[in-house]
Every structure is written in structure tokens, then in C-alpha cells.
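Quick one - first record:
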Amino acid sequence: MWKVAQRLTAKPVKFGTITAEILAMAVRDDHYKDVRERIMAFSDALTEELTELAEAGCPVIQMEEPQIHMLAARGATDGPVTPDFLVDVFNNTVKGLGEKCEVWCHTCWGNPSQQRMFDEVQKRPLD
């Protein structure tokens, strides 16, 4: 798909993809018994695909909506999916890409406290 789009313009075309944790939560899973294992399997698959894309000449790969900020908005720091785990997933997904292309990260929810998705307005403690 990227090659077709790139052939239609002289300007560089970036490629965007959602992240492993979003994919892993959007599928029915009868194989993996552990959510972390499922997420990392998607991360490994994305790493392979994105590496091929970069090696084909794609100049920019944009990772869409990593969910680490949503954990912060919900105050989730423990459980199977933690902020540290999501950092590991992101780093695994993009490993080696920075040597081949630019890697961008995009989130529409960069400030989840300003998104009205909870009953109460989210506030960050000043302390």
C-alpha cells in the first residue's frame, strides 16, 4: 500500500499503524492464555512488518495511539499491563527502525485529562 501511495507523489509518504496493544485487545484470542504474551506476539509481528516497510524505502513510520497515556489517566500502575510493560512493547515494536527511517509517535489523547471520557474531570495532583 505504501509503495502505491509513494508512486503517486514526489513528496515523501509516511505510513501509520496502530500499536500492538490496540491490536491485541481488538481480536478474539483462543491461543494465548496471557494478555502480555498476546501483546508481545503482536509487537513481534509488527516489528517484522515495519522493518520490511522501512527497508522498502518508507521514510517515516508513525505509531498511532500507544496506550500508555490511558493507563496514566486511569491511574493504572499495576496489573498485567503496566506503564513499564507498554514502554517495553513500544521499544520492541520499533527496535532497529530508527536506523532505517524516522519513527514518529502520535496520540490524539496526549492530554487525557482534557478528554471528557470519565464522569469526573481528571486532575493531576499538584504535589
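second record:
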Amino acid sequence: MREFGLVDISRQELSHYFPEMRERLNNCQFNNCLHINEPGCAIKEAVVEGEISEDRYVSYYNILESLVEKLY
């Protein structure tokens, strides 16, 4: 069985790995938006409008929740 190492990315970087999100990141009101419940979030708006698949957003959210933010 092959083991895979953990990817070292921050919670703020995760959305950059989702192309449909990456193209909208500059439209969020806050530049540190995690796309969960921040006001003016372009990603959440795109999910509501059907421009981003809800399944993809749920995948993003589940990965986001699994990432532990390093405090150093």
C-alpha cells in the first residue's frame, strides 16, 4: 500500500486550487475571505446562482475544515 504525504497548504490558499473559485477570488469583499460566512463573498454568491457546483463547494468546505492552521 502506498502512502501519500500531506499537502502543506494554508486555509487561505485552498480556494486557489479550485479553478472555478480562483477566477472569482478578486470579487470577494475581503482579500482573506475563506468563503464560509463572510459578507460580500463572490464564491458563496456563485454557488447560490448555480455558477459553481454545490458539490464542488461542499468538497472545498470539507477540505477546508480538515486543514489545521499553523500558528507560528
